[in-house]
Fold this protein.
Amino acid sequence: MTPHSVFQQSLDKSNRADPYPLYAELRKTPVRREEDGTYVVSTYNEIVALLHDPRVSSARPTFPQPGEPGFSEEAAQQPRAFINTDPPEHDRIRRIAMRHFGPPHSPHRIDDLRPEMVEIITGLIDGVAGRRRIDIVDDIAYPFPVTVICRILGVPREDEARFHAWADTVVEASDSRQEGRAQRLQRRQSALLELHRYLGGIAAERRRAPGDDLISGLITDQGPDGSMSPIQVAVTSTLLLIAGHETTVNLITNGMLTLLRHPEHLDRLRHEPDLAVSMVEELLRYEPPVHFLSLSRIALDDIDIAGTTIPKGAPIVLALAAGSRDPAHVPDPDRFDPDRRYNEHLGFGGGIHYCFGAPLARLETQIALTELARRLDNPRLVADPPPYRPSPGLRGPRHLFIDIDGVDRPAR
């Protein structure tokens, strides 16, 4: 059955390779109501306003509720990840987590990992030497950020196969379509419970014998905001484990796909590695890893915006990728331009829920794309468009096969 609304069409898998013409159609009505009562917001200024509006809650239930199929007492007793809470609890948990992850308390934690990141990406690229066809996703873009986030959290890298399947199930539930939503949320609930048990076990070990990893920091923290309970540590670690690699996989892959479609910029990056910083910012605007914020946003009161009233209790979808290409915000938005001087985008969201791991994702992508551009000899796409992942919200290729003539030696 053909989806009725422009928004539903943009979620359909047949449009995954190029949803941007549909986003342009969406923006003609900045705030539009779907048949199920959801309000879709697609223009830059309106999205920014709602990202900073305290009347927009991020605490809409994302598990089956009492009386609904799949309801679980165990799941109901789990605390929410801070990304699905509102102040003041959101702010307290996020501050505790940030103390062990980045500025202002741990300002060098991410940048100090740069040499190790370069070593990891070098090893991955070395691993494809001698081959003439590689998959950017499975060979590079997935194992790189997974290895890094496992190192940061203190999660054994050899357990990757276990949490990979759980993470895929959680990501699948970000699909905004109503069809099959209850089943997706039920599968998400089961996967999260498994992850909570797994990471809760690691946290218990770290309480007994702390290390220099993030989970050790969270489970032993006794700072001014109080401490996290063991289950809060497991829930927070689950969020960081999934968010710490899923979005970066897409960003690296979308980036390489974009550069292969614009070989002049790939060549520039090969010879101008400092271009990586502005190039990644443009990728976050032009081909972002996150297209929609949709699962948990809900209006706490009537909200008047762009001539429309979003009523209290209505679910809200923020179409971030549509907003970042809003021609009222940025000139020539459908052109990939790493030299763009004004580049405010929604690639990492905004407001109190601005992406926790943005510094890490930026650095990983800068390093990965620079090394790929420098070391792959004559890379070229096998198929364009490539096959895409099912999720319309976390959008990226499932595989990105490319042919190469060889792999150059790493710099010494």
